[in-house]
Amino acid sequence: MNMVPTSVSQVTEAVFKVVFGLLFAKYTMAALYNQFLSTGAVLGISCADEVEALSAIYPITSAASIGGVTFGAFASLVYLGAYSSMKYNSRPLKSRYKTGESVSEIFRFSLPIIASTLIQSLSVFAYNSAVQFCLSLADFSLLKQEFSECLSVNSTPDEDLITYIYGLFSTAQDFKNIIPGFTMALGVAAVPALSCAFEDENRQRLSALANSIFKYTAILSIGGGVYLSLAASDMLSILYKASNYDIVIGCTGLIRFMGFTMLLYSLSGAAVFAVQAIGFASKSIPALIVSGIIRVALCAALVSDPRFNILGAAIADAVSYAVILVSNLYIFRKYSGVKYNYLQMLIKPAVCSFAAFFGAKIIYSAVFTSSGNLLNFLVITALFGILFTVGIVLSKTINFSEFKILRYG
Fold first, then answer.
1. Structure pTM?
2. Largest Cα–Cα distance of the chain, in whole Å?
3. What is the tens place of the pLDDT at every residue in 104-115?
4. Buried b vs exposed e over 225-261: b needs ≥16 C-beta within 10 Å?
5. Are 198 and 327 spatial neighbours (Cβ–Cβ below 8 Å)?
């Protein structure tokens, strides 16, 4: 029942992954570009001009950003190792189960979860492959025209256009994954409390606990997603305007769309965790398979259309997560008997988030003038944060007594 270290490790991993992924990419890009300027080569490979050098640098930069994932996992491992060694006695406890019974129980419980994870991993792999393949099927001249503004800044050669567009999509995905990385910690931490309430057949406590988990996931995901949409342009400009302004041009609209659909990515994860917590993980598998098929099919229909291109991939992703969310909420309600409070769980967080979004835009336009991306970012962040906090408090969306329920189950 102690899920605090698990939650802390998840948040630690998410933060380190994002921060160091961006840092590794930024400094690798700078180091290799400076190497080209001074030697005319990238890692010992001669490059005739800047375009050829950038074509060699971009894949290495992408690979370096993946180092953030490893660094995040390692930071999480170090924390959990230190916590375990300090908190718990190293001597093994005597089990009331025989080894064979324990292994059998673990196997029965974990097999559906392993299958679900495998299906999701294969679905993501198929989705990413489909995006790249379908981009190659689009009319090349129309695709080039759609990204003409980015290409005027970047000067990417025609043979690297598909890779370049997919790179923009990957950059936007990095920003999209920030908020679900945080909300996942809440879902993981709630698993033992949900399991306990379900096993005790305390439906009132289970309903209160589930609604609280889903509500706070919605508050974080809708609020965070709307804020991401609001600040996308300034955020990207701070990071990339000086070095890769084409990323600002190419990713702003995509990140805004992902921000407005953030609820689907985050709450679907919490719903899947809830279903797994009450022992019905196998019931989620058909929905995961169907969502994967829908995602790839929509990619084939939309990404190959130059008018949609990578936005079509984001639409396909959002629809597939909507299928996962709706199906798992239904499964959880069916087998647990909980009753959802949609007003508290979804409507109030959404109203507060969008009220803060429009309120921040109106106040900023009326009172402030553009003073550079960093100052704009700080002002719009402060305005949104104040308005959103006031909204969820005055609307009684947050009930501080629920934190005790979330913590102790």
1. 0.78
2. 71
3. 777 877 888 888
4. bbbbbbbbbbbbbbbbeeebebbbbbbbbbbbbbbbb
5. no
